[in-house]
Amino acid sequence: MANPTETTLSSSAAASLSGTTDGGTGAAFCTIGQAEYYTSDYQKEAINNRILAAANKLRAVKDGAATFGVWSGEFSDGASIVSYAGSSGNSLTSSSTNYIYLSESGVLAVNTTGFPTGAVHVPLATIAADASGEFDFADITDCRARALLRTVGRPGLKRLVSQTLDYASFADNGDATGHVDLDSDIPSGSIVIGWKAVVATGFTGDTNATVELGRSGDTDAFSADPGQSVLAAATVGSAAKETEAFLAASTTPRVTVTGASDFGSISAGSMTVTIYYTELD
Q1: How far is 266 from 166, CA to CA, in rounded Å?
Q2: pLDDT tens digits for 186-210?
Q3: Which option is the CATH number for 157-279: 2.60.40, 3.90.980, 2.60.120, 1.10.3470?
Q4: Are 272 and 211 in contact (CB under 8 A)?
Q5: 239-270 tens-digit pLDDT
Q6: Which ranges in 31-184 belong to alpha helices (H)?
Q7: Cα–Cα distance, 215 to 212 (Å, whole number)
């Protein structure tokens, strides 16, 4: 499949616009035979430029043989508005497709592996650079529509920024358990749907290791199916408990790993934890 070729106006239809005003933009068409045609043309161009200014926000552009710039703009992250001031002279990795995006806090990032799959972000563009790091206009692919357009009718699911946890980052509770409080809170008025843990390195050193998610004082609140094993590399997860899913207050998620007898026996392990929730407001 390919993009369509839009049908243009016939000569007579185009001529019929002489001296009229476009109903969608308010721009005036110049009158055929008008002596100073450029005046009405400039007036129309000024309106079009104001319209295009909105479409230009956060657009990645070529600003040098091997560098790119990004126009300033804003995006919404839930109820928060995040502003980006714009930038220029950003470098690229040669002989690679460069993926350009903003983090949820509005920080510009570039990598050659792809847009993040486990973190909130705004995709801006891809740029294919040659062996010298240079590129042409046609090498820029605008990806902003991925954030602008989404399916209608699907609940507004937000994914908490994934966090990678090493076994050494867990606080030993002095028994079979150890815990880590994640860096980001889940906002008040949210419903926790569940979580996923991608175990890259098994939590070994003891005969057993399981994980559950919850909060301080209720460590399995988000684990309707507790006892998910992280002893070996795997992907595990659970839905939240139905009676604990609604959060009336901002909550810091807690990850707890339980060994067979003594958490201090666990000598290895790494996993990336992602919590899924939806905001009602």
Answers
A1: 11
A2: 988 889 999 999 999 999 999 999 9
A3: 2.60.120
A4: no
A5: 999 888 999 999 999 999 999 999 999 999 99
A6: 37-55, 145-148
A7: 10
